[in-house]
Each structure stands twice: as C-alpha cells, then as structure tokens.
Design goal:
198 residues; 33% helix; Class_I_gatase-like; DJ-1/PfpI; DJ-1/PfpI family protein; C56_PfpI-like
Length: 198
C-alpha cells in the first residue's frame, strides 16, 4: 500500500550503495522519496563513497558516483513527511553538526514516524538524542556512540537488520534485503494505522 512520502537526509561522501539502493528501491516500490542535503538544492549532487569489506581491519573507501538530489533542504518541512531514511558513509559525521538536521531527525521520533538508518547513520541518531532505551544496529565502530547515547547496540550479522518499534537499523549495505523489507513493513503498518484512524 505505498503512499508514504519519505525524506532522505544525505550529504557529501554518503555511502554509495546505502544511498542509491534504498532511494531507487523505495521509488520502484511506489513510495515518494525526497533526497536532500543541507546547503544544496534540487538538481545539485553529492559525492558518494564506496565502502567495501576486503579483509582489512576496517572498510576500504573509494570514490563512488555523483548522486543527484531531487529536493531542496531549505524548502522541505519534516512535518510533511511520513518517514525518514538516513544512509551511512561519511556524511552523518558532519550532518550531525547541523542544528536543522538534528531538529528534523527529532521530529520523526517525537511524532512516532518510521525511521530507517544504516551503518554510520547511527551517528546522527546519537547526536539527536533519540536512542535512549532503543535497540539500534550500526557499523560496529559506532557501537560506543550508540551506547553513550543510551541505546542498546544490536550486535548482529552484517547482513541482518533489527526493528525496534518505528526504528529499523542495520550494520551496513550487505543488510539491504533485510533492512528494506523490515522498513517497508513498518511503513505499511504505519499507513494502515493512519487509514484506520481516518
């Protein structure tokens, strides 16, 4: 029952797969997705980075694509959206310094709307102060941030995802099938609840 309008907050050196795959998948499934970045407008691009797992002690990073934004951050209002997607990569590291981004993230939690975050997206959730008592997966190096923010770190396989009410999280892009399936189930449940309440 896709009808949800989804906001994706991203930025330069966002993880390539974690941005492009959910954006295209959700569009293909009939959802409306507006991808925004502070300081940029519709038609601008953000640089992406490809994080891969090649046997080193941490992921490797390579330059990815230019991802075209289709909405302007300064023109959107979180209140107009049904759900939020936060990709990982390097972007959450600096996006969490933006007060308007933090305010937007808090809106979705205060309103009980569905939120999907993956990998380093947990850095943004931690900075927004929305993880207290919530189970959250993330790239393992973000575990201290999740726990310092009062969250319960979900130590799951890299291909798994976890749902805690309206929050769906995963460690990295290999979890896309599970992460997106769980997120769409939460979206559909929220849409059904709204329909029944109307």
């Amino acid at each position: 029952m896709p009808a949800s309008k989804i906001l994706m907050i991203t930025g330069d050196f966002t993880e390539d797969y974690e941005t492009m795959v959910p954006f295209q998948t959700l569009l293909a499934c009939g959802y409306t997705v507006d991808a925004v970045c502070p300081g940029k407008k519709a038609g601008d691009t953000v640089a992406t980075a490809i994080h891969d797992f090649e046997g080193d002690q941490t992921y490797s990073e390579k330059r990815g694509h230019n991802f075209a934004l289709n909405a302007t951050f300064d023109s959107v209002r979180a209140e107009d959206y049904d759900a939020l997607v936060i990709p990982g990569g390097r972007a959450p590291e600096y996006l969490r310094l933006n007060a308007d981004v933090i305010k937007s993230v808090r809106h979705f939690f205060d309103a009980g709307k569905p939120v999907a975050a993956i990998c380093h997206g947990a850095q943004l959730l931690a900075a927004a102060g929305v993880l207290k008592g919530r189970t959250c997966s993330a790239y393992p190096a973000c575990r201290p941030e999740v726990e310092l923010a009062g969250g319960i770190y979900a130590d799951i396989a890299i291909s798994d995802a976890v749902s805690d009410g309206n929050l769906v999280t995963a460690p990295a892009w290999p979890a896309h099938p599970s992460w997106l399936r769980q997120f769409m189930a939460v979206l559909d449940a929220a849409a059904l609840l709204e329909t029944n309440a109307a």
